[in-house]
Queue: 2 jobs
Job 1
Amino acid sequence: MIQIKGLTKIYKLNKKQMKESKTTNPMKTAVDDLSLTAKPGEIYGLLGPNGAGKTTTLRCISTIIKPTKGEIYVSGHEVQKEPEKVRGKIGFLTGDIKLDPQFSVDYMFNFFGRIHNIPEEKLKARKEELFSYFEIKDFSHKKIKELSTGMAQKAAIAVCLVHDPEIVIFDEPTNGLDVVTARSVTDYLKKLKNEGKLVIISTHVMSEAEKICDRIGIIIDGSKVAEGNLEEILHETNTGDLEDAFFELYRNKKGGK
Amino acid sequence: MSGISQIFGKELTRVFRDRKMIFSIFLLPVIIMIGIMTLVSHLSSSAQEDVKAHNSIVYIQNAPAGFEEFIKTVDKNCEIFAVNDWDSAKEMIKNGDADLLIEFPEDFVNMVSGYHAGDVVPQIKTYYNPSEDYSSAAYEAISTGALEVYRQALLSQRVDDMASLSVFTVNSDNPDMIIQDEEKAGGKMLGMMLPYFVTILLFAGAMGIGTDMVAGEKERGTMASLLVSPVKRSSIVLGKVFALMTISGVSSVIYVGAMVAFMPQMMGQGGLGLNLTLNSKQIAMLAALLISIAFLYSAIIVLFSVFAKTVKEASSYVMPVYMLILVLGITTMFTTKAPQEWSYMVPIYNTSLTLQGILTQEVTMMHYGMTLGITLVLGAVLVGVIAKAFESEKVMAI
């Protein structure tokens, strides 16, 4: 279970960043008083355009960055008070997180398994399961730098799931993957959900959100503008599909501009 | 504490599994060092031999009869010419075409033979060019050698009993004149060089790997995968610092070993005459101090790498620190006064002093403890700062 209570994240911009975003205000609010609850056994999707604050929210949950205000509880542990415990419960993956290119997939898998204190027997079983699911076995002895983008992404996913986490956090899970690999990833997310785990993803792909998310939180400019399952959101916005619903909400938020 | 050993292991595996890395970190510097030293010693010894083989060219003005014989007894191959034109002879010395110019007073023989008490003592002038090796050698051999023999010969014509002139001699027959503790003397010599070498070795060995270990991981985006694992930031830092210590330690052991093994080749025959024997207490003291220095240096390198975004940036931060540490290492090479009490409080500088002190057996337990303590405490403080920096999202740029 993830509970976010009044999360606010303000970045301080340096001069270069201020110039880039054409502003004179050195404070940038990435997430503005966001609250949400995601429960075990569901896939929760954070949907929003680029720069809406999805990734920032996921990073706050993963303890990589610290909230400016608000609290986040992950399986009962507060992210700022017990960051190590939180990290032990989650598997976090994004395109920015990469595996050491000089090592083989096997080595990285074992390394992170040991970092998570997984007994050797269990580690072996996990490896068998994940490597055969993601079809990694053929190239598991290869160094990461020798792998193609899709293979490396599969390897990274397998490594981040080594400890069989209760909560899986994926930032743009299918970004940069071919159709076949993307499908195997989304299928695996559904499998995790069916096993009773909580999966929280961020995406800007409407069809992905429609297809796999049980509940969707739409974020625009750092605030949550709608939340619920697909029907609820469509009903609330009085629209026929998620894309229309999103633009309806977007117009409202931006004051009809 | 969990995670330290895994991260330590991973960092070592990265280095020791990679043949290219092993070669570039452990072997290449040694090969370069031995190569350069061997070349330098070879060149300098062949230069010396060349000077020896050279026939000195000596110009003499107003040479008294028989003087040439005296020169030939000292340097039998030297070529002697009479001066025709004084200025051109001087010019030849300046240009290196001639090696020595000797000027006798015009009536030198008469001045000597007709000398009475109170007369002006005749003066022989010699000219040479110290920037020419041949000229310096000729000056040494002839001006201070042959002329002295010549003087003695003329003197013996004037005085019957030469021994009465010497009054006394100093150490003309005293082979035991040097009284020193051989161990201490060897330690003095090595103590001058060792702190300097230890600095170069421990720091330089860790520099390349250390920057890659932290700044490189940030640059490649692999650091974040560690940061989302349930390992304490301080464990990540310690794992990396310990791995770096080990690598720099191994590289300096290889370096020192190679230097000792190849010393004869590098220094020419005879070496430096170092005869160092260490007792077990000295070895234990050295070992503990060297480990703590490796710890401090590794922490310094990691600290600077944490604040850099790329390996390149990290290297440019670390380089000035390396220079500073080198300078501190050199200063102890040239201090003769006993160090002040407070100098044992200055980090890094105190390690150089103490290393020297251990080898010369002059360090007190108080000073040793102080140095060891300060080094370890500073290292620990830096590790704390690094761990804090790891917490900072700004520093880690994630």
Job 2
Amino acid sequence: MTLDPTVWPLLWKATLETLWMVLPSALLGQLLGTALGVWLTLTRPGGLTPNPALFRVLDAVVNIGRSFPFIILMIVLIPLTRLLVGTSIGSTAAIVPLTVAAVPFLARLVEGSLREVPAGVTEAARAMGATTSQIVTKVLLPEALPGLLHAFTVLVISLLGYSAVAGAIGAGGLGDLAIRYGYHRFDTATMTVTVAVLLLLVQLVQWLGDRAEHRADHR
Amino acid sequence: MTIATPLTHVSSPAAAPASAALELRGITKRFGGHTALEDFTLHVPRGSRTGIIGRSGAGKSTLVRLLSGLDTPDSGELHLGGENLLTLSPAQRRQRQARTGLVFQHFNLLAQRTALQNVALPLEFAGVPKVKREAQARDTLAQVGLSGFEDRYPAQLSGGQKQRVGIARALVTGPELLLADEATSALDPETSASILSLLTRIQQERDLTLIIVTHQMEVVRSATTHVAVLDHGRLVESGETGRVLANPQHATTRALLGAHQPLAELAPGETLQQLTLPALDAATLGRLAALGGRVVEAQPTVIGGRQQVLVWLGVPQHLSADRLLGQLQPQAEEVA
């Protein structure tokens, strides 16, 4: 088992492709998922602005979004991806399905973090005359910050996994490299190095996430 | 403070007298089939320290939610500073009620904000610029004895210090009315006493009206000038604290006053029986009397996290004590 030295530039390129797929999707997913999570929290029965009908719709959307296997989701979204990016192949195109998968995933995590903010605190804010948007921006989100950072960490790591799946259908990245060289060509050395890079990325993200969460947590 | 009768509020539809900081007239609030407050009338004199006492389930929490604007009564009038809030739009009403300072049992501080940022929060909601609101918050923290604690997070403060931050937050907007809801119930006795004396001092210095909602008569005794006793959603007794405590008229008041003042002596020929009841209300007293038992002492207590009343009964010897207690409460214990 020897490593072909020409694999290093490929590995570097694949790493960049993976990051290019994952980071924009994670940021977009965090933004939209947080909004959806807040919306779920507000409209749920007993929330600040209960709306049972809307809540049931949002809740169903999140459940459906989360139950789609990612590989199926990618295929289903090809028309949307073509519409937005112009093509359904390549790392940039993968950002679309990755973001769509990220939003409901994150919304659920955000909803959980927001639920940990004690009801007494939001009621106190309401009694002090806070508007609903003030409660969201000045109470709920800042109080849930450690949980939100944790959710972001989990999201990035999940997307690293999803991006490998995206690689299987033409998105490039580390997953693609591992499958093409490692699996199809029986190149165990390249496969091992590629998986090691993925593993290091996951470790790095988890370490950074834990650090950020710890520093942001004053509870 | 007047003892409320149903007639007074029906016959006086005019604005509340200037002497009232807060006046509730004929307030009813129901949750489903349960009536939390029924035809509830209360007059809180301006500049008083008024205790509102009752057992759990008496309607205290509902009252606090109405006074803090978190709930709206089904009927009645709520006058704050001479203005009937219930005729205002919800937005206007919230704006008025935001001027009432609230102190909570569990402090309800924001864990991710420092003491200073917590105190500044109501001003932030009101749109006061950062420099100004932080200066005001700093001053208010100093008034509750927390200079030097500005940058501490709630997790770095003791229970008493957290409640001081809570009080500073309630005061920072300069309210005329301060509402303390079981503000010392989560604190040890020594800390409770210091918080009560702080509230008393602030009430006097700022000449505001203080309402202390509690289930502990000790709190009423040590910190209030007036008291209103709630039972089953109704006002059963009210007046100046000294007068009410010296001569309680209602069984609930006497029960809340507890074992320090035996209600009656044991008569010759009676045996003493102790039992625990969920509440000592008029209906229970009636049933006890019908069965031949006489309450000689009662003391509120907490058993297994639930509010209960320990009751000592004088039972005539010729009555079968076992039968009497069996009809009321299976777990009654004989102590004498």
